[in-house]
Amino acid sequence: MPPRPMTAKPRVARPLTRKLSRLVTLAPGEIGILDDLQSATRVIRRNREIITEGRKYDALLILIDGVSIRCRILHDGRRQILNIALPGDFIGFPSAFSERALYSITALSDCVVAPVTFLRLLSLFDSQPKLAAAIFWSFACEAAMYAEHLIDVGRRSALERVAHFLLELLTRLQVIGLADERSFRMPLTQELIGDALGLSVPHVNRTLRQLRDDELVSIEEHIVIIRDVEALSALADFERSYLDQFRLPDMITKC
Amino acid sequence: MPPRPMTAKPRVARPLTRKLSRLVTLAPGEIGILDDLQSATRVIRRNREIITEGRKYDALLILIDGVSIRCRILHDGRRQILNIALPGDFIGFPSAFSERALYSITALSDCVVAPVTFLRLLSLFDSQPKLAAAIFWSFACEAAMYAEHLIDVGRRSALERVAHFLLELLTRLQVIGLADERSFRMPLTQELIGDALGLSVPHVNRTLRQLRDDELVSIEEHIVIIRDVEALSALADFERSYLDQFRLPDMITKC
DNA sequence: CGGTACATTGAAGGGGCTCAATCCACGTGG
DNA sequence: CCACGTGGATTGAGCCCCTTCAATGTACCG
């Protein structure tokens, strides 16, 4: 069994707790349970694999700190990034439900993760319907991001794709307190952006430049500033709502 | 409340039961519970919407019979099909967890669906860990198909895309007994294939023709025959395994 | 100071798109 | 029974977005 260094002390509020708190008013007991889920942690160094394709895994992971990507590399070297995980996200689904993991997950920066067994999750669903609903909501959110990602590569132009990508990243980082009103630190290189959006590196570069020339976005020292959120959203056909909307009041009773 | 016509009698085994039976040996009691889930049904006519974007929904649906698509239409008319649901699939996720449904789901043929409330699902998870694991597996399967879909549009050529699409459809239809060893009835027009794969209609047509010219596939009267599964799989980088692999033995105990 | 990683820019080519015409099967109403 | 309309398949011509290949710039780091 690999060593399991503990993080000395969480620097900020546990990210999943923070994320779910934005949706639902959590009772102290519920906060305690959530924090508990995120307490036993493991550290993975930058560029190492968190999950390796073909191996077998027994638990989901909550990403506590850092950024990771799940991707597939075709035989000739083409690569497609399937999703980008930020703190507070679950990773390792669907790997934990297959005999062998289907995709690798790689740490882009040093990462801290907390394992959650399937049984633990089920018992949580049983005893905490409110938390269950909130966690299901975060899965639903992820499904929506997948859908938008598919629309990106399937039907949007390079300009629309990159615009949409920047806006989604801004919104997601805001939710966990890692971005302010209009700006954030870009955690990806242009090559990674290209592999996420199905574009070549030169074209990502040209597209970013055009967004700068059009004064919609500015990028300096890896800091992205969205100069005109409205205009960029219109260009990208971006609806913030798919990451926001949630209903709890009637959900538990009526569903 | 809309009328809820009951189907007279299921013509074949309930599709979700059939699907999960292929993975797990189900006890008679478990089969009964599964069949129960699929008993109260509603019929939706061809070309009508099962779920309408912007509306509010309280339950997931199990598709019992027919084919449906979830899709998004951009302001200028471009359309991206997000997924294709076949009998035995859950639909309405993530719609049921948002204040307003994010995407429409349309019946391509006359469809029969069975609603399942969130609470019912949770209680099932609690009382039937084996079924819970199997249902989670089917969600995992769907996630894997999403991933492959993303790779299709992001990094595969038109030829690879169409080849992969045909093989995935073959495999999925086989699981529910709607395809034989090498052939099936294509439920989509070329326009729909294009909207699923991010291609134009003329190019879908040319691509299908090339597959025919290369004697990999033949299509007549909407019947698709994969003439060389091996070669087509190699071309498409298709691994059947992502729709097959499942482990139950240790999952419930160890996870 | 050389090496590595990343960003940037140019030139040329191609894969897939748009636009357009044609064909075919089928249903429907006169 | 035929004329017509409609939905879908098929094919061609021209073009454009994005790719590939290549070179250069630049910051950082051992």
Features:
homodimer; 255 residues; alpha+beta; Jelly Rolls; DNA-binding
Sheet with the most strands, sense and barrel status of chain A: 4 strands, antiparallel
Order of helices and strands of chain A: HHEEEEEEEEHHHEHHEEHH
Quaternary state of this entry equals homodimer
Radius of gyration of chain A: 19 Å
CATH fold-level assignment of chain A? Jelly Rolls
Overall spatial form of chain A: globular
Would you count the extended β strands of chain A for me? 11
Mean pLDDT of chain A: 89
Provide the β-strand percentage band of chain A: 15-25%
Number of domains of chain A: 1
- pLDDT < 50 stretches of chain A: 1-11
CATH homologous superfamily name of chain A?
Jelly Rolls
Strand-pairing-aware structural class of chain A: alpha+beta
Widest sheet of chain A: strand order? 1-8-3-6
Overall helicity of chain A: 40-55%
At CATH level 2, the architecture of chain A is Sandwich
Task: Explain the overall architecture.
- The structure is a homodimer of 255-residue chains.
- With 255 residues, the first copy, chain A, is an alpha+beta fold.
- Chain A has a single domain, classed as Jelly Rolls (Sandwich), CATH 2.60.120.
- Helix content of chain A is 41%, strand content 20%.
- Chain A contains 9 helices and 11 strands.
- In chain A, the strands form 3 sheets. A 4-stranded antiparallel β-sheet of chain A has the order 1-8-3-6. A 4-stranded antiparallel β-sheet of chain A has the order 2-7-4-5.
- In chain A, a hairpin with a 5-residue loop joins strand 4 and strand 5.
- The longest helix of chain A has 27 residues.
- The N terminus of chain A is likely disordered.
- Chain A binds a DNA duplex (30 and 30 nucleotides) through helix 7.
